[in-house]
Description:
Elements: H1 19-42, E1 61-62, E2 72-77, H2 82-100, E3 105-110, H3 122-135, H4 139-148, H5 159-168, H6 173-185, H7 189-201, E4 209-212, E5 215-216, H8 219-227, H9 232-238
Amino acid sequence: MPRPPAPKSKAVKASGPPMGLIGAVTAVVVALVAVLVYLAARDDGLDASGSASALPEGGGLVVNPEVEDVPEVHIYEDFQCPFCGQLEQASGQSIVEAAQAGDIKLTYTFMSFLDGASGNQSSSRAANAAVCSADVGILPEFVQTVFEQQPQEGVGYEDQVFLDAAESAGLGGDELEEFTGCVEGQDYQDYVQDMATRSTEDGVTSTPTITVDGEPLSQEQVQQLLSDPTSFEAVLAETQ
Length: 240
């Protein structure tokens, strides 16, 4: 008796993820690699602002980063602080001139604890504008000009003060446009917050605070700088 034909075997289809899922996973991997490359590129001793002036982790803005083997002067200021304005009016120019001559390395940290003194976050906005000014190479001139225009406590700055300070420093054309966009967009508010956090971590509780090679000046030395425009060289010598 003839046997019935054997059943035909069914082809087994290989299982695996859908092609759409593979594409999605690939895109995620590519994006992750791009982020890692970006982060690696940022690890160059500078802040993400892209400015050679900005130290990482809110460490402040260096006027002359190329200078080495000289006393390091670090000034902590709030743009709304009246005594900071007094310091800049009395000794700011002589300090900047020493930096420009390569006699010191000068760093500014701009704090924003007086934001509550005005209704427009004036300290942090001014600090942001200072980082913008560092990006276009006019930091010392900007600082001095803005402090010259310091309003009464509680009034606060308008953006136009920052823009006028940049023009007064000789900024124009594309650079002025870049600076204006940076100020109006408050591009560096994260770094401003980093400076505030770092200052607290460093034990800075008032402004102006001035350190030389990491050691704070005494109250008497700060008072000298506040009152005597010719005192910076002598005060610096006392620290060496």
